[in-house]
């Protein structure tokens, strides 16, 4: 069961929801890309439905809402430590099925991979999700093959159609709010992608032995270690810690958790001058096997959700989906069957 809403009706609904929630959705920023005169679509606060970008894939995911690019963990003085005040309102995030599956991956890393991370948990427990219906895949999507094209467990669903906006919610509180502003009651099930233009196959029996394959050496020169793929990815979770000391008093400052990239120089530097994975191909190997091998062995499903953002954003046109499809031949090579 669902409801059809007019543009004025859904805007009234969003205004009412904004009393209790900060509303986040994919939003177009004109000229906001790194290239001159090119728009950028990324997550931002919205107040009306016309700000929600439904016709194009966002360049960056929702991840920054739960994992800020730079997050102050605490302030410190010579005598005291104080945590910053957290966001007062809960967050209501509009996202597609692949990104909703990415939330599960982030939860696995930060909540169930040992002791729960208190800073992530504080934001996560005050976050609710509205699924955006996705009737057709974009050119670089491969969510069907990764099993992330259909989602369950969302708090509400939303889809823009030619005759209006459709919403539903399994939760009484949200359902009553939607009904209050609806034009009429109707049958509504959010659309899910059934087929994608890109096909990927993760080979059966994939193991870390594929690390010995020659394919990785190609990326020593092709990859420029910019890390853009990591920052666009909804499931990459690497970060670094930075202590910032204030100029007025060198004994006072703050500790920040800052998003980082396993693909860039310096990420694997260790005390004593050592550094792991100095070659770009080794970094590509590490990232790939973490996404479709190691993570699955630990948690039972792949880390990659097939959103295709890494393919979209790479300045060297390296296709991660193509790398996955090369793993079968790489396994044959290391097993002596190539």
Topology:
Layout: E1 2-5, H1 7-17, E2 21-29, E3 40-45, E4 70-76, E5 81-82, E6 90-95, H2 97-111, H3 118-124, E7 127-132, H4 143-146, E8 156-161, E9 164-168, H5 172-180, E10 184-186, H6 219-222, H7 228-232, E11 239-245, E12 253-259, H8 280-299, H9 309-313, H10 320-334
Low-confidence stretches: none
Number of strands: 12
Mean pLDDT: 94
Q: Provide the helix percentage.
A: 25-40%
Run of helices and strands: EHEEEEEHHEHEEHEHHEEHHH
Query: What would you call the structural class?
Result: alpha+beta
- The span between the termini is 54 Å
Q: Mind explaining what this structure looks like?
A:
The chain is an alpha+beta fold and 338 residues long. The protein folds into 2 domains: 2-67 and 87-186, no CATH class; 208-236 and 262-332, no CATH class. It has 10 helices and 12 strands. It has an 8-stranded mixed β-sheet. Strands 5-4-12-11 form a 4-stranded antiparallel β-sheet, with no helix packed on it. The N and C termini lie far apart (54 Å).
């Amino acid at each position: 069961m669902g409801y059809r809403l007019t543009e004025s009706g859904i805007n009234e609904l969003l205004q009412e929801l904004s009393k209790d929630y900060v509303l986040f959705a994919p939003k177009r920023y004109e000229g906001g890309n790194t290239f001159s005169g090119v728009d950028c679509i990324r997550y931002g606060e919205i107040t009306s439905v016309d700000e929600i970008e439904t016709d194009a894939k966002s360049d960056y995911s929702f991840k920054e809402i739960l994992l800020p690019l730079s997050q102050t963990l605490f302030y410190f003085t010579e005598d005291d430590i104080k945590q910053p005040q957290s966001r007062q309102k809960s967050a209501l995030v509009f996202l597609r099925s692949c990104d909703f599956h990415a939330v599960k991956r982030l939860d696995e890393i930060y909540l169930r991979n040992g002791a729960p991370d208190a800073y992530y948990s504080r934001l996560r427990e005050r976050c609710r999700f509205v699924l955006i219906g996705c009737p057709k895949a974009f050119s670089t999507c491969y969510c069907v093959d990764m099993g992330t094209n259909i989602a369950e467990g969302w708090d509400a669903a939303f889809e823009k159609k030619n005759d209006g906006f459709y919403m539903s919610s399994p939760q009484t509180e949200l359902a009553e709010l939607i009904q209050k502003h609806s034009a009429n009651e109707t049958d509504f099930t959010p659309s899910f992608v059934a087929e994608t233009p890109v096909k990927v196959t993760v080979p059966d029996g994939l193991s870390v032995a594929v690390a010995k394959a020659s394919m990785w050496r190609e990326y020593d020169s092709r990859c420029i270690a910019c890390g853009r793929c990591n920052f666009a990815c909804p499931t990459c979770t690497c970060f670094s810690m930075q202590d910032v000391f204030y100029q007025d008093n060198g004994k006072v400052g703050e500790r920040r958790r800052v998003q980082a990239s396993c693909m860039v120089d310096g990420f694997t530097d260790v005390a004593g001058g050592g550094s792991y994975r100095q070659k770009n191909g080794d970094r590509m190997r590490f990232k790939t096997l973490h996404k479709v091998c190691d993570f699955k062995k630990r948690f039972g499903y792949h880390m990659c959700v097939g959103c295709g953002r890494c393919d979209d954003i790479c300045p060297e046109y390296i296709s991660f989906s193509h790398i996955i499809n090369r793993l079968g031949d790489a396994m044959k090579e290391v097993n002596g069957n190539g």
